[in-house]
Specification:
Keywords: Signal. Residues 1-27 form the signal peptide. This protein is α/β, with parallel strands linked by helices. The chain has 2 domains: 4-107 and 210-330, Periplasmic binding protein-like II (D-Maltodextrin-Binding Protein, domain 2); 111-205, 3-Layer(aba) Sandwich (D-Maltodextrin-Binding Protein, domain 2), CATH 3.40.190. It is built from 17 helices and 11 strands. The protein has helices at 4-15, 18-25, 40-46, 49-54, 66-75, 85-93, 139-151, 165-173, 186-190, 200-205, 218-223, 225-244, 254-263, 270-275, 282-285, 294-307, 324-330, and strands spanning 29-34, 57-62, 80-84, 98-107, 111-116, 131-134, 159-162, 179-183, 194-199, 211-217, 277-278. The strands form 2 sheets. The protein has a 6-stranded mixed sheet, sandwiched between helices. Strands 7-6-8-5-9 form a 5-stranded mixed sheet, sandwiched between helices. Helix 3 packs across helix 13, helix 6 packs across helix 16 (294-307) and helix 12 packs across helix 17 (324-330).
Length: 332
C-alpha cells in the first residue's frame, strides 16, 4: 500500500531545511479532526501552540464518532485527526490510507458503562433484556462487546442502540435507555442519576485495550513530515505539562478553565475527567509496548470485530498503518 517512493518522500522531507519547511507551510490551512475531549491538548490549543509548532493555519473540526472521522479521512476532507483504536482498526482493514503517528491517550474510566438507578443492573449479567446505548464502531462499543463477551452475555440478549453522545444524553433524560457505554463529558452528566458498572480500564484487563490515536493521511505525512513532527512535538509538550504536576490542574487553574471553555465541560469536573485517562510521554510511546506493538493490537482488534460481524475481514499485517519516523523526528 505504501510504496518505497512514499518512504523516500518522508526521508527527503525530514532532510529538508526546517526554515524552508516552515516557510512553505505558513499559508497552508489544515483541517484537524478531534473529539472535543477535555484533555491537556485543549489548553495548548487555546494558546495557539499547534499553529506555532507547524506554521499552519488550523481549522479544528469536532466529530461525534470514529465513524465520522473515517468518512472524512476517506473522502480527503481532513488529513489529520484523532481516532479511537477500534475505528482505527476498521479504517485500516478497509484500506483507508492513514498512519498512526502518536497516541492521544490510553482510555481508562474516561469511557465506562453507566447504568441507570432503578434499572435493576448490579452486574454485567443483569444487562440481559436491557436497552444499551453506545456509538457503534467506537472504542466504547468495542469495550462494551468485550464486557458482554467476558460476562457470557450474547448480543442477542440485549438491545444495542446506536447513538452519538448528545443523543445518549437526551435518551437518558427521557428514560429511554437503561445503560450506556460512553465517554466524557456525557458520562459525568448521566452519572448524576446512574452508577459506573465497568470502566475501560477493566475491559482492557480482560483483553480489550482501547486508546485514542492521532492519525494522518499517508501522502500528507510524506509531503509535510517536518510540520507533522512539529504537531506531534506540541502534543507531547501539552501532555508533559499535565504530567509534570497533575495536582496543579484544579478547577481554578488557567489550564482547566481553558479546557472547560473549549469543550463545554464544567471546570470542577475536568480534574476528575483527566484522571480517567493515561497520557504517555512520546518517548514511552515509541517503545515495543505501545507504537511498536500497535500493529499487533490493531490486528487483534480487527479479528475481534470480524468475529463479531462488524467488518468483513482482517488484514494479515497492520504495520504499514503505523509511522514511527514522525515521532522519532519530533524527539530530535
Amino acid at each position: 500500500m505504501f510504496s518505497t517512493m512514499k518512504k523516500l518522500a518522508v526521508a527527503a522531507a525530514f532532510g529538508a531545511s526546517a526554515v524552508a519547511a516552515s516557510g512553505a507551510a505558513q499559508a497552508q490551512t489544515v483541517v484537524i479532526g478531534q473529539f472535543g475531549n477535555p484533555t491537556p491538548m485543549q489548553a495548548a490549543r487555546a494558546e495557539g501552540a499547534f499553529e506555532a509548532a507547524t506554521g499552519w493555519d488550523i481549522e479544528w473540526r469536532t466529530f461525534n464518532s470514529g465513524a465520522e472521522v473515517i468518512a472524512a479521512m476517506a473522502s480527503g476532507d481532513i488529513k489529520l485527526a484523532e481516532l479511537g483504536s477500534s475505528p482505527l482498526a476498521i479504517a485500516a482493514s478497509q484500506g483507508v490510507e492513514l498512519q498512526v503517528v502518536m497516541l492521544a491517550q490510553v482510555i481508562g474510566e474516561a469511557e465506562s458503562l453507566i447504568v441507570r438507578e432503578g434499572a435493576g443492573i448490579a452486574a454485567l449479567e443483569d444487562l440481559k433484556g436491557k436497552r444499551l446505548a453506545v456509538p457503534v464502531g467506537s472504542t466504547a462499543h468495542f469495550s462494551l462487546m468485550g464486557a458482554l463477551k467476558h460476562a457470557g452475555v450474547s448480543e442477542r440478549e440485549v438491545t444495542i442502540l446506536n447513538m452519538p453522545p448528545d443523543q445518549i444524553a437526551a435518551a437518558w433524560e427521557q428514560g429511554a435507555i437503561d445503560a450506556a457505554f460512553i465517554w466524557q463529558p456525557v458520562q459525568s452528566q448521566i452519572l448524576q442519576s446512574g452508577a459506573l458498572l465497568v470502566g475501560g480500564d477493566e475491559t482492557a484487563e480482560w483483553g480489550y485495550p482501547t486508546f485514542d490515536a492521532w492519525v494522518v493521511n499517508a501522502d500528507f505525512a510524506a509531503e509535510n513530515a517536518a510540520a507533522v513532527a512539529g504537531f506531534v512535538r506540541a502534543m507531547d509538550a501539552a501532555n508533559a505539562a499535565y504530567l509534570a504536576d497533575p495536582a496543579a490542574w484544579t478547577a481554578d487553574s488557567a489550564q482547566v478553565k481553558a479546557i472547560a471553555a473549549a469543550t463545554g465541560a464544567a471546570p470542577d469536573q475536568v480534574p476528575e475527567i483527566l484522571r480517567g485517562w493515561t497520557f504517555l510521554p512520546l518517548s514511552e510511546q515509541l517503545t515495543p509496548k505501545w507504537l511498536g506493538g500497535a500493529p499487533a493490537t490493531m490486528k487483534a482488534t480487527a479479528e475481534f470485530l470480524q468475529a463479531a460481524g462488524r467488518i468483513d475481514s482482517a488484514r494479515d499485517d497492520y504495520a504499514p498503518f503505523v509511522n514511527t519516523a514522525i515521532g522519532d523526528a519530533a524527539l530530535k
